[in-house]
Amino acid sequence: DLASNALGSKILSFSDEWFADASNLLVPAAPIRRPGVFVHSGAWYDGWETRRHNSKLPTSNPTPSQLESEAADWVIVKLGVSSGRIRGVAIDTAFFDGNHAPEIAVLGTFSDDDDKIKADGYEGWETVLGKYECGPNRKQAWDLGELTKAYTHIKLLMYPDGGIARLRLYGLAVPVFPEAVDTVFELSAIGNGGRALSCSDQHFGTKDKILLPGRGKDMGDGWETKRTRGEHVDWVVIQLGTPGEIEKIMIDTANFRGNFPKEVQVFGTLRAGDAPAPGGTEEGVWTEVLSPQRAGPDKEHDYTKDILKNVDGKSYSHVKLVIIPDGGISRIRVWGKRTVLSLNTNLRIQSQTSLHRRPPLRQLHPTTHPSSPARRHRQPAKPLGSPRRRMRLGRYQRPQRSRSRALGRVWAHSQEYWATGWGLPYLFNEVGAFGGEV
What we know:
- This protein is mainly β.
- The protein has two domains: 252 residues, Jelly Rolls (Sandwich); 155 residues, Jelly Rolls, CATH 2.60.120.
- It is 10% helix and 31% strand.
- The chain has six helices and 24 strands.
- A hairpin with a 2-residue loop joins strand 2 and strand 3.
- Helix 5 runs antiparallel to helix 6.
- The longest helix has 14 residues.
- The N and C termini lie close together (5 Å).
- The relative contact order is 0.15.
């Protein structure tokens, strides 16, 4: 989720936030309700809500400039990553019923000048998602078909006014690397394209959090595995944002005081081109970079080149962190120098010509699945399923499904739609845990 404030995304400016702050749009946690609670501006809402009576009506099929010219409240989000390519947009109007936003649209731009973007008359906006209806007290998601071009800022338009609980922008970070190849920087950071691909277990905390910026705010802001008995190790595989020569590794056990690992160990491997990502238990592909080291509670553990091995003159595209025998960590950071290789990675930028020929837009929801990938791409752009099967929760109550059925349904759906659309938001509320990629 490129819009998450956990990545450092923030609100740059807004038209109005009289009833509820625009910053609530970027909170990773699901919205909550506090009935009967009132503040100076009115009833308390977990979202962004503006004043009434923004009167001018929108037009149909507007251009980006027309989208901005219509009467609408708006908010500009500066992405926490250097830039990002968007694949899916999700809007949640949880608990906004009667005061929800009737319609929304999303624009994007690429710029390093915040003041220029905030100025009236800025003409650099491009349409990411056209104008769509936004119903009360429900979630809606749109699969854009493929990744957009890279954007640094997003503008959410709400026609003409009202409230929205959450905004999610699913996609990939597009890093901006230092021009000098000998510059040491964090290869594993999400903002630089790092991704946690797989792990042995994430019973208490998910693998994706260990690449977030900053130290974890609590024990839930990290990766933690279940208790084990006997000989055992847990592991997580991380794809670096770019292949590089490792200079330093830091493993942080912040807030893990009685459940930190006994020892930590790190391996590395280099995968070129479109070769599949290595598995955590795959043999013969991993090179030991850090031998088992004793770990301590609530502490940053730094490992420099005098402790590391097999790093001089060697490049790695993936690292595997092993915790012995189990436990939890808050963060891992891998610093190094970028290696210029002829690698065809998943983060390559497509030509602008191909980006403008998108497949039809698809609106997603969690209860309907296309019969096959081939058929999915041939179907016309329309909401999936019949109105009776769409997820429209009148009081925002969760469906009474079993935990295992919900998890299986979300896992299949998030895999099919690459963690865009309904995969992750549905998992937030249905299962109560974040089980997909950030």
